[in-house]
Amino acid sequence: MRLAAEGVRLAYGDKVVVDGLDLQLLDGSFTAIVGPNGCGKSTVLKALGRLLRPTSGTVLLDGRAIGATSTREVAKVLGLLPQTPLAPEGLTVADLVARGRHPHQSWLRQWSSDDEAVVTEALSWTDMADLADSPVDALSGGQRQRAWISMALAQGTDLLLLDEPTTYLDLAHQVDVLELVGRLHAEKGRTVVVVLHDLNLAARYAKRLVAMKGGVLVASGTPQEVLTEQLLADVFELEARVVPDPVTGTPMVVPVRRLR
Q: 14, 104, 211, 251: which could join 227 in a potential S-S bond, CB 3.0 to 4.6 Å?
């Protein structure tokens, strides 16, 4: 078990957002967290990434309480990309990706040729080498996401958490980013947890779905097990038909009307 939440409650001040969360993420899995707006998806991801401390319960990373593990040690095995990451003005793609090596450096271990090789490989693998000298803030949305994923790749973590990486992207760039994440999972063995709004894209790329409503986990399993017409009605208040995706055979949601 790479990452787990046991009886986790999450709150902002006095407002409880997630309560009684039990979640297990297996090594080498690709999981998408889905649910309506405000259900606690991003909050859960923050807790799994050690950005938000539970008010009760425990998040475990490789069997150890993540809150008791140093930030540097967590950063060596876990990479978290927030929903709208920001880079300092004028920072180049190469410099951004190089920041992924910071957890591996110290007073005794400074920048090395090995670090340079890792950054070069990350840029090449994400098709960003030609844009290495470009400012991050001059990139298109899809290129910017590729740059951040390249940084996570250079970080060398085998556990990657992404919070809505397709937000504000057109459909072609959404597919482009998720294809890249899918390759990270399939070819480099990364364990991936991603928050997604688009249920059809979640079903196509993730091997497991976790559905939430009102801060509670209500279903988990394969896309076929989770994306049922009854769940869509109960969780999303949506009347819909679920049919096979003509390309992949995975569940495809065809909306009919909003309920209530």
A: 251
Total H helices, total E strands in the chain: 9, 12
Residues 6+ apart with CB under 8 A from 80: 45, 49, 51, 160, 161, 162, 163
The pLDDT > 70 percentage for the chain reads 96
- Find out whether 37 and 74 touch, Cβ atoms under 8 Å: no
Give residue 174's identity as a one-letter amino acid code. Answer: Q
H-state helical runs in the chain: 41-48, 71-77, 93-98, 113-125, 141-155, 171-188, 199-205, 223-226, 229-236
Instruction: Assess whether pLDDT exceeds 80 at residue 246.
Output: yes
**Separation in Å, CA 231 to CA 34, 194, 219, 225:** 12, 20, 8, 10
* β 30-34/191-195 pair status: parallel
Closest CA to 119 of 130, 107, 106, 132: 132
* Residue in the structure block whose two tokens are 């556990």: 159
Rounded Cα distance, 134 and 146, in Å: 13
- CB–CB of 32/208 below 8 Å? yes
The tokens for 100 are 């992924």
Q: Parallel, antiparallel, or unpaired for β 159-163 and 3-12?
A: unpaired
pLDDT > 80? residue 110: no
How many Å apart are CA 139 and CA 72, to the nearest integer? 29
CA 193 to chain centre: 4
pTM for the whole structure: 0.90
pLDDT beyond 90 at 234: yes
